[in-house]
Amino acid sequence: MAEFLDVPFHIDGRGRTAATDEPDHVRDLIFQVLFTTPGERVNRPDFGCGLKQLVFMPNSDALAAATQFLVHGALTRWLDTVILVERVDVRAIDARLEVLVAYITRSTGARRADLFHPPGQE
Fold first, then answer.
1. Which of 13, 35, 67, 102 could staple 87 via S-S, CB 3.0–4.6 A?
2. Backbone dihedral angles phi then psi of residue 32, each to the nearest 5 degrees
3. pLDDT (tens digit, 9 = 90+) per residue, 3-51?
4. What gap in Å lies between CA 77 and CA 98, rounded to an integer?
5. Measured between alpha carbons, how far is 116 from 122 in angstroms, rounded to an integer?
6. How far apart (Å, rounded) are the C-alpha atoms in residues 106 and 117?
7. Separation of alpha carbons 47 and 73, rounded Å
């Protein structure tokens, strides 16, 4: 079974670099794309979709719809070799933004759906 470096980087209980399995690794990759702001990475300034900036925007159905297209496009661009995005659902609930990403992991064919929230809205 393959092991991947866990994100964020940390040391496990044995004093070693923490590792994770493939499903968690893929979720970590999706999280990185969603919450990295374009311009944040020096060597890849167009990486990410900047979802965490939406924490400060007024919640609305229009924002949720725009976010759905933004997220789908970013995931397809940056993780197309890792996942096949089946569906992205974005819901604005009161002052909270929820992003559901349904996808197939290309290496295993496993279907998953993960829910993401901007940092600070967990």
1. 102
2. -65, -45
3. 888 877 788 888 888 888 899 999 999 999 998 889 898 999 999 987 7
4. 21
5. 8
6. 24
7. 12
Q: Which amino acid is at 94?
A: D
Please provide the DSSP assignment of the chain as one string.
Answer: ---EE-SS--B-TTSSB-EE-HHHHHHHHHHHHHHPPTTSSTT-TT-S--GGGGGGSPP-HHHHHHHHHHHHHHHHHHHTTTEEEEEEEEEEETTEEEEEEEEEETTT--EEEEEE--TT--
Task: Answer whether CATH 3.10.450.40 is correct for domain 4-116.
Answer: yes
Write out the two tokens for 16. 């070693």
**Dist CA 81 CA 83 (whole Å):** 6
CA distance 100 to 68: 9
Q: What is the pLDDT of residues 47-62, one digit of tens each?
A: 998 777 766 677 677 7
* Cα 21–chain centre separation: 17
Q: Are 109 and 91 in contact (CB under 8 A)?
A: no
